[in-house]
Amino acid sequence: MASLPLSEGESDRWARLPQELRRLIFGYLIAKDYPLSKLVTVSRQWQGDLEPHIFARIRVTPSRAVDFDAMTRRSNSLIRYIWFCLKLEDYDCDDCAPALIRERRVDITNLEYCPVSVTFRHLFSAFSTRNHRGLLTLDISIYAPSDSEHWFPYLTFLPDTLPEMPQGRGPERTAPAKVGSHRPRPRRTDSADPPASILQLQALKRTFGTMEKGLFDPTIGCAWWLQLPALPVVDRLLLRRQNRRKWSPAALRHMIARFTNLRELYYEPREELFLMQELADIDCEHFFPAISPPCGPNLQKLVVFENCNKQHPFVQRGVWYRESIRKASPLVSKIMARTSTGLHHLAASYIADAARFFAGASDSEWPNLTTLTLTAEMLDPETDPARMAGLLRDAATVAAKMPRLECDISRKAHQATITWRGTWEWAMKNLIIEAWEPVLLRDDVWRLEIAEEVVDKKTVGSRAEAIKQLKLSGVIRPVSLQQMKLEQKAFGENTACSSGDGI
Fold first, then answer.
1. Is the torsion defined by CA of 288, 232, 79, 12 positive or negative?
2. In angstroms, rounded to a whole number, what is the distance separating the alpha carbons of residues 88 and 245?
3. Per residue in 240-271, is it b (16+ CB within 10 Å) or e — as a string?
4. Which InterPro entries would you find in this protein's record (predicted)?
């Protein structure tokens, strides 16, 4: 359907419509995902009303980045969300599972001409000198379309959908990942090709390994980031789980340092592959202090969700060895406790353990913290009840150092409720009440009640389902949770998460 400009009389009649009615009409068109770029040609009035919706959420690719400055200069103040899509080179079947064991990496070593580094440079140049008004979210997604055409047909690539944004409106989405026709060539019985398990390892390493070349190099890349201008307009940064290739923490912290006004960071890395988790934890010991106050003076919200790889079918078949339960580094947990004292919101799932966090918090205070979400290995029905009670007492001790921590308190009745929500019952209510009473007295609470919500264990077949059932949506971006559910469906029901996940 083509849009025709309004005549002068029609334009007058449109202007006489009540503003609320005009808003409803535009809302309907937006909800139906009609191409708004066509509607702005109807009239100047329509252009003025619709441009805020068109430019609020935009997608930037390497091809668009070249003219990005000129394209957005007039509409700069309207931009609220940038989906920064960096496409890696396509690869064919011989590359994803080569006959000879060799690793062909994406050519990102030439920082002067590499499309990824050139695109970053264009974006920083476009926004570094602008006086952007309002909040700006930068959502970085680095991907290779070939990933879903080979070993991993279930992978999807989507923009972030913020809770306040209507579904269906925003940057254009990529088509759902399809089952590609590409597959590694069959192994002949008389050939010297490696076994299937080795080919699967190569595919995993290529798609889910750590990026360490070019601008992601821990040493060369750091110097490259430092020569970019600061970008104070970005106040929220998203590094979602669809960045399947993991960033080097050293390069990542240097990039984050360029966002001098960053207030919120959502970071969803994948668990390290091939027994390299200890080395990754060492990098994290330097990463979190570098981005938190006072080094990152404006950061207020930090949400870290470490993605588990053990549900992947390759892992289920024993292609590579991993411990059945990811054990968070004690030192990383304690460092997060000490470096989070300036935050307002903290959620650290699987990358830190609550018991170690509390142990590292003995001399710390959190004057501004309002929400705290942690996972704990100890939250398991097989754990000694006395140890679990000790964990909850430690939680109460730490909560006493968080004067602004949000509690579910009925002021009129002077009572509060602590909810135990899980897949098993726990009958130690008196210990919980005894531990938390000093904290609640601070808020003029006279009565504390314990509520129990037992979740049917049969309904919790994955971390995604556990997050939904336990009402913990704030620990991960909504679209990431959606992608987790799609992957679980592709894997099948035989890959249920362990109770030892600390859920």
1. positive
2. 11
3. bbbbbbbbbbbbbbbbbbbbeebbbbbbbbbb
4. DUF6546
Q: Helix and strand tally (H, E) in the chain?
A: 19, 11
What span, in angstroms and rounded, lies between the C-alpha atoms of 455 and 437? 27
Burial of 401 (0-12, 13-18, 19+ CB in 10 A): middle
Task: Tell me how many degrees the CA angle 453-456-461 measures, rounded to the nearest 5.
Answer: 125
211/245 Cα distance (integer angstroms)? 6
Q: Could you tell me which of 176, 159, 175, 174 has the C-alpha nearest to residue 56?
A: 159
Closest by Cα among 215, 340, 322 to 270: 322
Pair type for strands 264-267 and 301-305:
parallel
The SS3 assignment for 292 reads: coil
Sheet holding 371-375, edge to edge: 57-60, 81-87, 137-143, 236-239, 264-267, 301-305, 345-353, 371-375
CA–CA separation, 167 and 165 (whole Å): 6
The model's pTM is 0.84
Sheet holding 415-422, edge to edge: 409-410, 415-422, 447-454
Over the range 345-373, which residues count as b (16 or more CB within 10 Å of their CB) and which as e?
A: bbbbbbbbbbbbbbebbeeeebeebbbbe
Q: Count Cα atoms within 13 angstroms, Cβ side, for 483.
A: 23
- Is residue 378 within 8 A of residue 395, CB to CB? The reply is no
Distances in whole angstroms, Cα of residue 29 to Cα of each of 37, 40, 78, 221, 397: 12, 12, 19, 45, 53
pLDDT digits (tens, 9 = 90+) for 148-176: 887 788 888 899 975 444 444 455 555 44
The crossing angle, in degrees rounded to 10, of helices 277-291 and 330-339 is 10
Q: What is the mean pLDDT of residues 417-445?
A: 77
Q: What is the pLDDT of residues 17-69, one digit of tens each?
A: 888 888 888 888 877 777 777 777 777 777 778 888 888 888 998 888 878 87
DSSP assignment of 310-367: TTSHHHHTTSS---SS----HHHHHHHHHH-TT-SEEEEEEEEEHHHHHHTTTT---S
CA–CA separation, 476 vs 481, rounded Å? 7
Residue that the structure tokens 């650290």 belong to = 348
The amino acid present at 112, given as its one-letter code, is: E
**In the chain, pLDDT over 70 holds for what percent of residues?**
74
Q: Residues near 495 by Cβ (< 8 Å), separated by ≥ 6?
A: 311, 312, 313, 316, 461, 462, 488
The two three-digit tokens of residue 288, written as one number: 């979190």
Name the one residue in this structure whose structure tokens are 């909040």. 135
Distance CA(271)–CA(287), nearest Å, equals 16
